[in-house]
Each structure stands twice: as structure tokens, then as C-alpha cells.
Amino acid sequence: MKTNMAALKKKKKIIKRKIPKTVKRKTVVKKIAVKKKKTSVLNLKRSNKNPIITPTSGRSWESKASFNPTAIFHDGKVHIIYRAIGDSDNSVLGYAQSTDGVSFDQNFKELAYSHANAQSFSKTEPQINYLSGGGWGGGCEDPRLTLLGDQVYMIYTAFDGWGSVRMALTSISLDDFISKRFNWKKPVLISPPSEIHKNWALFPEKIRKGGKEKYAILHAISPKIMIDYFDSLNELDGNKYIYSVHQGSRLWESRDKLTRGIGPSPIKTKYGWLVLYHKMEKHETHRYKLWAMLLDSKDPTKILHDSEQPILEPDEWYENEGYKGGVVYSCGAIVKNGELFVYYGGADKVSCVATADLDKFLKELVHKSGSKLKTKKII
């Protein structure tokens, strides 16, 4: 029996040696070649300066992470608000600015917003299990800025460290914001209690609805586009809420389970509203990727075009080495001199940027995706 086993092992070794090394090399080369062919005009080009904003050990409020940036462009400058986690594990919001959109002086970052500004949660809300971005202390997460008129609005995820994950709305005058006088209006919670919500954004201009120009908040893209309209944002006073898709919703089971939600505030283009969003793929459910769609300019509940492949995937080291590897997560995008700048978080730790020629990007999106107009009513 021992002799037979020895002979069998020897035979296996011989068989293994007979596999030519050149065959293995050809297989590897082929895989790399296929991956390179995947690039197209729809892919965003990363800045060689990435990551553009990183944690600073000397600042207690952002010693661990500085990620998920949002942005507005005004008077030749890009203004960034980003989520930061410091020594206390509490999430706050930092500020940075740039003239070229990619170079940010790490020495001139400032604390722009903290949980101390936020409206208190009701202590009667049930406790939930929630951990986000390596922080457990709660605070202000994943902001979306929108410049509308002379006001800068911000919607963000508010989490108190033990209760429900809710959406909050605040604002500041443009003059105060660019002057770094962070006199934010007292925020109000705009999603219902005892529900988990993320990824909401305000449109950067009013949309005609029912014969009137109204403010519009986009709060879901699956299983359908969901937008709530308001004559005045003052209607959201902390007692009136926007009802969206959540685990207790009747729409929860019919949603696309791979779609995570929208990214930056929508961008108005000649083809319609450009919306970037986060989605995973069936074969890589552990990797957050960025996709793009175009919504009808007059009725943004209609999807005109939708990308058939991701426009940005977590392939670089700074998108994989952090609190959550395999993540690109965008909260901000601006257009500067015809170029689309997309700001995103890498691995829940750093802030990055990727760009594209906007016109070429849109033409490719329209051409490659074909018409995706959705008129089916989902209830």
C-alpha cells in the first residue's frame, strides 16, 4: 500500500511538471489585455495627485479619515466639504478649496460643521446596529452640497451614535460660505424617525411641477426615481418628512438590491439631468462602483439613458487600503471649463478626484446606453 501511494505521488509530480510554463504566461497576458480593452470615453480619468485630501495626525478632528467629499464651483474656485473622523471617532465636516480642482493645500483645511450644530434625536427612538466609515461615535456623514441662487444647501446623513440614521438639511449664505464664516442655519431632520436613510440630494435649480417652479429633492432611484417637490424648503420644519424606500417600505423588496443610491447632486446638461450613482455588480458584491444615468430635464422621474458598465471602479491602492476596501463613493461633482470633476472617497479614508471631458462623456453615455426611457408605473 505504501509503495502504491509513493508511486501515485510521483506520478502526480510528473504530470504537474509536464504543464508548460509558457501556457500559464499566455493565459495571464490574455487576461490583462482583456481588462485594458474595457476603457472608453465613459471611464473617468483619475488625477495623478490622488488622494487629494488625506487625514492629518496633528488635527484631532480629522486624524483618522477625510473622505466622501462634496463640492460646489463658484468664482473660479472649487469649494469642498468632506467627512472627517478624528480621535473621538465622531464624524464632522471639513473644508478645503482649490483653483485648479485637483490641488488642495493640506495646511488650509478647516473644520466647517460638527454634530454640535445638529438637532437632537428623540431618545424614544429604537437602538439600531450601524457602523459607517470606521467611525462609531455618530455625527454628520456624507454631505451633498447644492448651490441654488445665493444659498448653499447641504443634505447629510445624521447619526447620533445609537438611534436611527436620518437625513438632515441645513443651509448657509453663499457669501458666508466662500468667506469661511460657517454660520450654518440650524438643521432640520427631513426623513422620518426609526428608519435608515442615506444618499439624498437637492436639485441645483427649481423644476416646474403643477404649473409652478419648485424645489426638488431626489431621494431614491430604485425601484423607481423618487422626487419630492416643495414651494419652499421652509416646509421641511422638522415636523414634515419625506417618505422614501427603506426596510419597512412596500417598495423595499422590488428594489434593485445591488443599487446603493445616488452620488452628487444632479448636474443640468443639454441632454438632461446627469446623475451619478453607486452600484455593485453580481460577480463583485463587495465592491462599490460608480455609474451614470441621464434623467429627463422636464420630468426627472424618467430615465433617458443609463450606463451599461461602471464609469469608475475601485482599482487603485487608495481605493482599497482603508476602513472599507473596494469602495469609490462620490458625494460631489462640478463642471469647470467644460470638464467634469467627480470627487469621491476612497476606501472610506481619503478624498480623490477623477475627470472627463463633459461633452464627450455625455455623447458616449447617450450612444452606448441607447434609450432607457422608463414609463412603467411601480407602486
Automatic annotation (TrEMBL):
Q: Which keywords does UniProt give here?
A: Glycosyltransferase, Transferase
* GO molecular-function terms, A-Z: glycosyltransferase activity
| Taxonomic superkingdom | Bacteria
CDD domains from the entry? GH130 (cd18614)
Q: InterPro entries recorded for this chain?
A: Glyco_hydro_beta-prop_sf, Mannoside_phosphorylase
Homology family? Belongs to the glycosyl hydrolase 130 family.
PANTHER family for this protein: GLYCOSIDASE
Entry protein name: Glycosidase
Q: Which organism is it from?
A: Candidatus Nomurabacteria bacterium RIFCSPLOWO2_02_FULL_40_67
